[in-house]
Amino acid sequence: MATKKIPFEYFLYQDRSSNPRKSGKFYGKRFNSTVLGTRGLAQHMINHGLIAERSEVEDVLNGLTTCIPELLKQGMSVKLDGLGSFRATVSGHGAERIAAYSVQKHMRGIHMRFIPDQTNIDNISSKKFKQECSLVCVGYETVDAQTGVHTLRPVSAYVAPTQP
Amino acid sequence: MAELNLKFPYVLRQDKSSNPRKSGKYYARAWQRGLLATRGLAKHMAEHGIIRNEARVYSVLAKLQECIPELLSQGVGVKLDGLGTFYPSLTSKGVADPTKFVPAKHIAGIHIRIRPWSEEAGNLTSKSFLKNCEMEYMGEVETVTVDGKNKIVLHRPSGEEEGGEG
Q1: Residue A55 touches partner B, C-beta closer than 8 Å
Q2: B61: alpha, beta or left, given left = phi > 0 and alpha = psi -120 to 50?
Q3: A114 beta partners
Q4: Alpha-carbon gap, residue A76 to B33, rounded angstroms
Q5: In chain B, which residues have their Cβ closer than 8 Å to the Cβ of A116?
Q6: What pLDDT does A128 receive?
Q7: What DSSP letter does each residue of B79-124 carry, written as one string?
Q8: Of the candidates A77, A84, A126, which has its C-beta nearest B35's C-beta?
């Protein structure tokens, strides 16, 4: 993993919504659904030259996952340079008057948000991050109308439907 | 920081939009107490006794910041138990014919997203996160324009005023 650059695989799916501007058009979507857990990430970091025992790296990662929520709960934001910032936002309903505002009644949830780093060197905002990826199309998706089975076919095999 | 046990600070802000359903009503917003960067986080974690050596913690976090974007750029998600899963998502323009799809032209961007941890223990999805926070009302905020720049002013219930970031 440390030495091999793996491409970012995507496939094309056809929009089947009722939106007349979108329906029938093909859009890109991430194909690979591999997820690396804490242990795998620790091993990956060591493979990338981090001089540490895997247990030590796992301890730091586990500590990170305890400390970030704890800090967010206290109204702090956390920024990991080169990666991004974590912050909490509130969602809910409005109250007619300040005195009428009740957390139980009007507040719906507290969301953990992640904002990618956008500083010059480490910019990983969506447009810049796209440039870091080596994009490979693995095909387009077809859905069998009767069985609902999704199948990927090579884009070169696409035949445009004939107009009635 | 490690010894502090602060409540989640929120403020109320009056909606001044033209939306008739919202305008005039007061909505809650999170109030940011401060920002902790990598070095501060490493210190905080060392104080928590995770690994006593702050420099060791920092070196792991520094490598983490390199490796997560790299894995995501390869389409690999990263799950940190207790925090959530980082994953990349695509936004693109649509084409009528897939053979005409050109990534450089039609893929607008690749976003880094996080799906909060949703297991029962330590659930960080919005409703559970709210239940696990102790809330503290900080006051009312309003946006004022000073020298052509928008500034957020906090009016504390005590009558004090202060500027800050909401």
Answers
A1: no
A2: alpha
A3: A86
A4: 5
A5: 111-112
A6: 92
A7: EETTTEEEEEEEEE--BSSGGG--HHHHEEEEEEEEEE--SSTT--
A8: A77
The Cα B87–Cα B68 span in angstroms is 10
Token pair for residue A57? 């790296």
Q: Tell me which of B35, B60, B61 to substitute to probe the interface with A (most A C-beta atoms closer than 10 Å).
A: B60
CB–CB of A101 and B12 under 8 A? yes
SS3 (DSSP) at A6? coil
Strands B34-36 and B77-80: unpaired
ipTM metric = 0.86
Q: Cα A36 vs. chain centroid, distance in angstroms?
A: 13
Residue where the block lists tokens 């490493």: B42
End-to-end alpha carbon distance in chain B: 21
Query: What does the pLDDT look like over B96-105, one tens digit per residue?
Result: 999 999 999 9
Fold of the A8-157 domain? HU Protein; Chain A (4.10.520)
Q: Quote the CA–CA distance of B16 and B13 in Å, as a whole number.
A: 9
Of chain A, the percentage scoring pLDDT greater than 70 comes to: 96
Q: Where do the structural domains in chain B lie, given as residue ranges?
A: 8-164
CB B49 within 8 A of CB B14: no
- Distance, in Å, from the CA atom of B126 to the CA atom of B28, rounded to the nearest integer, reads 14
* CATH class of this structure's domain B8-164: few secondary structures
Burial label for A77, CB within 10 Å (0-12, 13-18, 19+), is buried
* Cross-chain Cβ contact A7/B10 below 8 Å: no
Rounded average pLDDT over B136-147: 90
Contact list in A for residue B62 (CB cut-off 8 A) is 82
